[in-house]
Amino acid sequence: MKVSLFEQVPYRYLPEGFEDQHSSVVTAPYDVVDPARMTESLFSAYAELMHGARAGFDGVCVTEHGQSAYDISPNPDLLASAVAYAARAEGLDVAITVLGRSLGKTREPLKIAEEYALLDCVSGGRLIAGFPLGLSYDANLNAALPAVETRERYREHRDLILKAWSEPRPFPWNGRFEKYGQVNIWPRPVQQPHPPIWVPGTGSAGTLRDIIAHDYAFVYLSWDGPKLIGRQVFDRYWDLAEEMGRDRNPYRLAFLQVVAVAETDERAEREYAEHLVAHYRSGVGAIPATAMAVPGYAEPAAIEGMLRASGHRGMLSRMKTATYSELVDSQVAIVGSPATVADQIEAFVREFRIGNLMVMLQNGSMPRDLTEKNISLFASEVLPRLRPIWDEDGWVNNWWPRAQGTAGAAGRKA
Amino acid sequence: MGPDVAGVRDETVEVWDGRLKLHVKVAGSGPPLLYFHPLPGLAWAPLLDRLARTHTVYAPEHPGTSPGDPQAIREVQTFWELLLVYEEVIGQLGLDRPAALGQSFGGMVAADLAASFPRLFSKLVLLAPLGLWRDDAPIPLVEMVAGPPEDVPGYLYAHPESEAARALPSGPDPDSAAIAQSTWNVGCTTKFAWPIADHGLGRRLHRIRVPALVVWGREDALVPVAYAEEFGRRIAGSQIEVIEDCGHAVAAEQPARTWTAVSTFLAAPHSEAWRVVRASREIAAGPERIFELIADPARQPGWDGNDNLAAADAGQRVRRAGDVFTMTLTRGDVRENHVTEFEEGRRIAWTPSEVGKQPPGHLWRWELEPSGASATRVTCTYDWTRLTDEERLPRAQATTAGRLRASLDRLAALAEDQVR
């Protein structure tokens, strides 16, 4: 299987009790920030991604959120571009996964087409193109687009980007949201007709059907904890895949897991617990429920489903008050020695048939040195146990970049 | 629907080239009245029952808000299309110039329909409408819609703890289906109000040519009461009613006072307020000097902003009501002007007529009010309420506040020039 390092870009020095006063998104007041510490927080994220690339991860992953304290990544392509260049300059064969630029949020979908194409070129054909809808607060509050149109915009933008990547000659586009006389972007992706497309979702049947129909990879960002809801999401996925005539190739799935690994279980708890708890409380846990579903973002049937299912929904709604043991018991975070961590991951990876694993190894206030230890230890002690999973089954990962040539620096002899 | 739904029937109107089947609740008897509901959809509130006693009430459900048909909202792509859909609905229902009453979001829809199609309605009632934006009076629509549900009454009511406020449309203990529906409804309406409910209505309101009543709650925490004046100023001849101790949901929080204002307005004989065109401004000169320029007909062509007056003989200075002065028009015709009101230095009014004939009914009035030591507030009124001659109507209608304003500005230039 492929194992990538996933990283958010939090401000690492939120004041104690931040989440009692503030939302982590949209209205989070910037005056809690010390500019020097912001600089350090951002720089650390770049450095840690490079650390992961050097440590032997198959890929690095970043996401987009605006007006956010827990993921300061208004355009993840900027971060991805720096890593794409640096990794290639160092001869590292690392996939660049942007998860992504939000297609339902953007007012300029062709910018996404251009930026992704550029990333694909600079990385030598190592881009994985994430096509997320965008969270409601991002699309409907930060970008202030009418919630009821979010999915319609998404579909049009996706069609436009795909056509812009593959159409050899300039073409007009008369969409509902976008109108152009001549679309003719430069550059185009190295990977034709397009880089592998990964689509994050919460696992609703409608989204899954769309992903399966287009043969994209389904990305599950497991904030809820795989133990609590993994089964219902992945059972639904594989049932639908079968119903729609797709094979059981595990590489159709990508899964994000928060992991903290240390020499022993005790030491892992001692070193990571406070950062994990603070991360969930002040980050994801401090996103108001209403900001995740501005009226119109979800259709009536979906809202009704969510209301009926509340209570069985895993940890997401309880993050703000979650304790360390709740986080670990639900596997929202997998914490422990290399053996503990590897055992737990291998179990759910095999159970849910996951071929592309992303691990998030930095959380909230976690400092750079501890994060880099987490990265190094995972890469040296855990990753080698996970990588061979699925090898014996002979599945081909059609959702992994088809890198062009060697990983060596462009313009030099490898 | 609310508790009293007796006699309310559901009509389905097929519009938009068959792509939309709009549900319209109908009740009562009498002249037609269209009701446009606020953000969360149609609730058959007591106001509608009261209206149904004197009117046939037609209450369309905004596309997408009818249970079982959520996707209807996809068929209406823009606010302009929404207006066209409603224009079709009115035609399909066979209504001839109904009255229109819109609340909040519905007020914005009703106002823009009246501005876009000036002959569509006979009267217009706006209860705290959305539709305008002033930077000094921001409307916290996004904060309300995307904020915690428990904060909503605070935006809608002056007294969010009151019984009226707690009886929000979805009822005391709504089930998940009702919550899902009302949440979706807000998504369907805010589609055309997001994040700022301003489609340029302010640039069209001057087209409204029907009697209009604007009702506002003094303590409106969603759309501040400053907008009452804004609507009133832009809709010629409109009547503003500000209700004290009242929030955004005027009909729910102050039902009796809202009803008094609305019913009085609707019952009044077809108001001719819009046939009274008015403009006023401050002029930096004393009233005597300005009055001289008006009361001496020979001076009038010098400031006429209508390009209507050519010349008048000297020596016709008006001194009292009953005087008649003669004016030659730019087209060459001669008019006798019968002075109907006169107060030296303060007020003069006259009705023009053809030589030797009865005045057809229109009237010009000038009023001067000293403002400080050396300035005067001058108001010019063109009142064609009594004008019945069909042939004269287009010309009367073309005499807008802008034309009056032009006269005022020229008058100001002349008067202020004399001062210097």
The first-to-last residue Cα distance of chain B is 68 Å
C-alpha Rg of chain B (nearest Å): 25 Å
Q: What is the structural class of chain B? A: alpha/beta
* Count of individual helical segments of chain A: 14
Q: Helix and strand succession of chain A?
A: EHHEHEHEHHEEEHEHEHHHHEHEH
Task: For the largest sheet of chain A, list the strands in their spatial order.
Answer: 1-2-3-4-7-8-9-11
Count of helix runs of chain B: 13
Q: Name the structural class of chain A.
A: alpha/beta
The low-confidence parts of chain B are none
Low-confidence stretches of chain A: 410-414
In helices, the fraction of residues of chain A equals 40-55%
Topology as H/E string of chain B? EEEHEHEHEHHHHEHEHHEHEEEEEEHH
Mean pLDDT of chain A: 93
Describe the structure in your own words:
The complex is a heterodimer of chains A (414) and B (420). In chain A, the strands form two sheets. In chain A, strands 1-2-3-4-7-8-9-11 form an eight-stranded parallel β-barrel, surrounded by seven helices. Chain A has a two-stranded antiparallel sheet with strand order 5-6. By secondary structure, chain A is an alpha/beta fold. Chain A has 14 helices and eleven strands. Chain A has helices at residues 18-21, 35-55, 76-89, 109-122, 136-142, 150-166, 205-214, 226-243, 265-282, 289-292, 300-309, 324-329, 338-352, 368-386, and strands at residues 2-6, 59-62, 95-98, 127-130, 171-174, 179-183, 197-201, 217-221, 253-261, 333-336, 356-360. The two termini of chain A are 26 Å apart. An eight-stranded mixed β-sheet of chain B has the order 1-2-4-3-5-6-7-8, sandwiched between helices. With 420 residues, chain B is an alpha/beta fold. The longest helix of chain B has 19 residues, at 401-419. Chain B has helices at 46-54, 79-92, 105-116, 141-146, 152-156, 163-166, 176-190, 226-234, 250-253, 255-267, 287-295, 393-397, 401-419, and strands spanning 9-15, 20-27, 32-36, 56-60, 99-103, 123-127, 212-217, 239-243, 276-283, 309-311, 324-329, 334-343, 347-354, 363-370, 376-383. The mean pLDDT of chain B is 91. Classes of the chains: A alpha/beta (414), B alpha/beta (420). Chain A binds chain B through residues 137, 140-141, 144-149, 152, 176, 288, 290-291, 293-297, 299-301, 303-304, 307-308, and chain B through 64, 70, 73-74, 77, 142, 145-149, 176-177, 179-181, 183-188, 190-192, 194-195.
